[in-house]
# Entry
Amino acid sequence: MNTLCISPSTYRHTTEVSRRLGVNPLSTLLVAFQTLLHRYSQAERITVQAIRKDSPGGNDSHAGFELTTDFSGDEPFRTLLERAQESPAGASLRSTEAIQATFTVNDATVLSSISRTNTQGQLELRMTIEENGTGLTVQVEGTAGQFEPVIIERMPGHYRTLLEAAIANPDISDHKLPLLTETERRQVLVAWNATDTDYP
# Structure
């Protein structure tokens, strides 16, 4: 399991932008996860099952729901959020302000892009997001032994980078949202400079 903290300022900005756009912060966090999966897999439809943890024992009728987002149009992040609110899952997304949820995807078409070759059995990837008193804690976990460890390790950082960019400019299209962390960008720059050799 790989864990990362989202800063209080990013969490606060996510909440403010979500409300300004007329959506619940949970919608923004979920659609950002779907967008990340789309960028990894290039699949046009991403379906994620979500379970909220705000109802003890899971007795709330809105505790579990499923959201499918269509990425075929390469539309602004704002539009993806609006569609999520208007979808059958919209009632569940609007019914709470609490941020305690687990997002699960088990679509092999989507997950094959980040799984190890020749894997067998059910593929499943989970992201858990919880308030930690100031910001958010993000945890990513995949089926043991079936995913490339480096991808699972980097995923929380990619998620944070994408989320920060999406709330900074909700009108940007999903394919233009950055994924690389600052450390990864520096590594790419160093590697590029190392190959930029002057020849006589």
Q: What stands out?
A: The longest strand covers residues 45-52. The two ends are 50 Å apart (CA to CA).
